[in-house]
Amino acid sequence: MRSNGKPPKVLMTCPTWVGCLYALKDWAAAYHAQTYSNKGALQVDNSDGPVQGGNLHYTHLIRAQGIPAIWQHTRFPHVWDTFEIAWTEYILPYAHEGGYDFILSVEADVVLPDDGMALMVECALQGEKRYVTQRYHPRGQEGPNFWWDTLGCSLFPVEPLWADRHLVIGAYELDVFTTLLRHGWKRHRAGWQGPDLFVPEHLKDPADPCYMAHAATPADQTYMRRVYAANGLNPDGSPRQQPLRVTYKEALCQS
Fold it and tell me: Is 4 inside a domain boundary?
């Protein structure tokens, strides 16, 4: 550890975009309420830039919540390419240069209890070269065996990921685990290996048009809504009053 006898330094972080505005205040409030003291935060904003007619407005909104934020210059049609750049070019350098020992990856619409960070660190320190993932039900899903436990709520060591940041060959959500395995780190899956440390809350987008209760919107539906918005349509795709100006493929390239 790099903290020289102090508790490990932890960076709570995530990629984000303006579509997560509904969760921003809750995410920021949860960070500020963490009882763990040796901490920092960062959000990397991949909202529309100048080419798409965007600006730094959402980056400024994040900072207004007391959360450091960086606007990400490069965005790809595939979300995992965008996330890889967010992690390898922004999050990992920020954590390495800031002297952080661990990254607490908490997605932009996931909210932790006040002791969440402390419990994750405590669990990690119970084993040698151990990192921790905490499962949660996506957006209120109530199925007993339907869980996520990857980047949504996970505590990773910084230095192995920093050392191999240019060796990523797949979706970062998976590559992070193979990288840590290569460096001899072992994963503790809270909730699967022993009890849950806590229950994270996955916030549901109030503008989500999905008709199923407690459902997560599939990624394609999210992209299609952006097509509708770009063409002045209603979220349900109701008949438009003007010709289509942006195609689905073009909207993917802007996302």
Answer: no
